[in-house]
Design a protein that fits this description.
heterodimer, A: 112 residues, mainly beta, four-stranded antiparallel sheet, globular, B: 110 residues, 9 strands
Chain lengths: 112, 110
């Protein structure tokens, strides 16, 4: 398997623009997780899905952030409008039955 | 999830065993101990997990004390590529929520 795939790997945008991050989980996995990593806050869980249904979005920072999972093989994390403080590395992870999580390579986002 | 305490940093000589400790004194009966590591600029990588018995796989060994209040991750023959931040995480069986702390920065020196 190719593992968890994320795109883009790097994104530079200007404040106020919409940003969409994409994730393809490992085939057959039923859980999908979105994390954010910054120097100040470390690695924190934003939201996770089970069988395409959002289960816990308590880590989503504010209404500017939204996540969807239209099918078992695709998820998006959208930031609209983006702000400089959203600059971070965003990781997607997937797992089978919520046990061992496998992480993607991350998307490095810089908001100017 | 129970809180974990790890040393901020450790050094190890290449070829030697690296022993990374973790304290989790408030662990409950249904919580597992998981270890992940993050090599610079990469996503976290699963290493091993256990409930109360010692575990071993191709990457490492996990030793959990009998009272389950602490554990040790052992990399038997550390290489330069093992330089990374190692996270000890305690979570319930489902493992749905992984709460990452500061971890231990392991530096393997030649």
């Amino acid at each position: 398997d190719a593992g968890v795939i994320q795109s883009p790997r790097h994104e530079v945008t200007e404040m106020g623009q919409e940003v969409t991050l994409r994730c393809k989980p490992i085939s057959g996995h039923d859980y999908l997780f979105w994390y954010r990593q910054t120097m100040m806050r470390g690695l924190e869980l934003l939201i996770y899905f089970n069988n395409n249904v959002p289960i816990d979005d308590s880590g989503m920072p504010e209404d500017r952030f939204s996540a969807k999972m239209p099918n078992a093989s695709f998820s998006t994390l959208k930031i609209q409008p983006s702000e400089p403080r959203d600059s971070a590395v965003y990781f997607c992870a997937s797992s089978f039955r919520g046990v061992t999580q496998y992480f993607g390579p991350g998307t490095r986002l810089l908001v100017l | 999830d129970a809180k974990t305490t790890q040393p901020t940093s450790m050094d190890c000589a290449e070829g030697r065993a690296a022993n990374l400790p973790c304290n989790h004194s408030t662990i409950s009966g249904n919580e597992y101990v998981y270890w992940y590591r993050q090599i610079h600029s990469q996503g976290p990588q699963y290493i091993i997990h256990g409930l109360k018995n010692n575990e071993t796989n191709e990457m490492a060994s996990l030793i959990i004390t009998e009272d389950r209040k602490s554990s040790t991750l052992i990399l038997p023959h550390a290489t330069l590529r093992d330089t990374a931040v190692y996270y000890c995480i305690v979570t319930e069986t489902s493992g749905s929520r992984l709460t990452f702390g500061e971890g231990t920065q392991l530096t393997v020196n030649p």
